[in-house]
């Protein structure tokens, strides 16, 4: 997508927001935990953390990029990639159209090059509001190309995951993306690249079982659900009560599956610090 087009869209978005706030049509969000109601714009200033109870709202890919990347530093890649509905899944095209209109995204991940506290990175962010952040051919291809770009340009790779897993509507083609993305990040790592994987709520299924679990550094947001099969499925299968906090970030940290659980408000500075340490510690503050 050209920069001019991006700028035009940004301008349109902000005009729309302005119009909505003048006409009193601000989007009101209700906290699912404490029921506190708040305008989306106010919540955005609080990094989408409920000021009453500390609940972490889901963050869209674009909002996440705004939270993590330096202002206007992000340049999107591969925005024109579209799925071809490879197994002709009934109703899939319509569903995609609906998702595109609702989210303004072409598919469930946004990838590109940006800066975090001045450090250039290849960054990808999955968006759980687009078909549960599921990985089909487009998500798999964008993640793969991102890892390849990071390798070519010798940039650190940062991926924020939020996903229900492989995309059912693309069948085997979705499952294939697990091997493809895993191979791409491994190749990147084998050439000395630093891959930081950030797992947010929820990271499950085929995404948790492929690239998302292969970070050199594994980070999660507090209380994020991270698993292959969900707790309900496991409980029904083994017929046993599961321990408190099972498959949540803190539980996984305790059991050695994660390196860090990082609060949303600290994420940007922690990422920047890790990147600086790995570039030889030259510019550690
Ligand atoms: Zn709340």
In short:
The protein is 40% helix and 16% strand. With 285 residues, the protein is α/β, with parallel strands linked by helices. The protein folds into two domains: 1-57, no CATH class; 59-278, Alpha-Beta Complex (2-enoyl-CoA Hydratase, Chain A, domain 1), CATH 3.90.226.
Structure description:
The chain is globular and about 45 Å long. The chain has ten helices and nine strands. The protein has helices spanning 3-22, 40-45, 61-68, 92-103, 137-153, 171-190, 205-208, 231-238, 249-254, 267-278, and strands at residues 28-30, 37-39, 75-76, 109-116, 119-126, 157-163, 195-203, 217-220, 260-261. The strands form two sheets. Strands 3-4-5-6-7-8-9 form a seven-stranded mixed beta sheet, with helices on both faces. A two-stranded antiparallel sheet has the order 1-2. The model has no long low-confidence stretch (mean pLDDT 92). With 285 residues, it is of the alpha/beta class. The two termini are 36 Å apart. The chain folds into two domains: 1-57, no CATH class; 59-278, 2-enoyl-CoA Hydratase, Chain A, domain 1 (Alpha-Beta Complex). Helix 5 (137-153) runs parallel beside helix 6. It binds zinc ion. Residues 31, 33-34, 36, 50, 52-53, 55 line the site of zinc ion.
Kindly give the count of domains: 2
* The top level CATH class name of the largest domain: Alpha Beta
CATH third-level topology of the largest domain? 2-enoyl-CoA Hydratase, Chain A, domain 1
Unique bound compounds: zinc ion
**Fourth-level CATH superfamily of the largest domain:** 2-enoyl-CoA Hydratase, Chain A, domain 1
Q: What's the total number of strands?
A: 9
What share of residues is helical? 25-40%
Molecular shape: globular
């Amino acid at each position: 997508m050209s920069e001019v087009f991006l700028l035009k869209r940004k301008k349109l978005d902000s005009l729309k927001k302005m119009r909505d706030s003048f006409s009193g049509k601000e989007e009101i969000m209700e906290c699912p935990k404490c029921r506190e109601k708040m305008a989306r714009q106010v919540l955005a200033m609080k990094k989408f953390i409920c000021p009453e109870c500390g609940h972490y709202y889901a963050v869209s890919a674009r909002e996440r990029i705004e939270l993590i990347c330096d202002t206007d530093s992000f340049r999107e890649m591969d925005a024109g990639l579209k799925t071809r509905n490879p197994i002709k899944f009934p109703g899939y095209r319509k569903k995609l159209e609906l998702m595109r209109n609702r989210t303004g995204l072409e598919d469930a991940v946004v990838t590109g090059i940006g800066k975090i506290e001045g450090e250039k990175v290849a960054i990808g962010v999955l968006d759980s509001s687009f078909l549960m952040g599921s990985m089909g051919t487009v998500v798999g291809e964008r993640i793969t190309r991102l890892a390849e770009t990071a390798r070519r340009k010798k940039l650190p790779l940062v991926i924020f995951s939020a996903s229900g897993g492989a995309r059912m509507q693309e069948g085997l083609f979705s499952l294939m993306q697990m091997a493809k993305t895993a191979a791409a990040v491994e190749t990147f790592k084998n050439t000395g690249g630093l891959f930081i994987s950030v797992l947010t709520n929820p990271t499950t299924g085929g995404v948790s079982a492929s690239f998302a679990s292969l970070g050199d550094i594994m980070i999660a947001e507090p209380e994020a659900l991270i698993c292959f099969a969900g707790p309900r499925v496991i409980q029904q299968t083994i017929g046993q009560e599961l321990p408190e906090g099972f498959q949540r970030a803190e539980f996984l940290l305790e059991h050695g599956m994660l390196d860090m659980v990082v609060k949303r408000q600290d994420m940007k500075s922690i990422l920047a610090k890790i990147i600086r340490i790995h570039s030889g510690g030259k510019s550690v503050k």
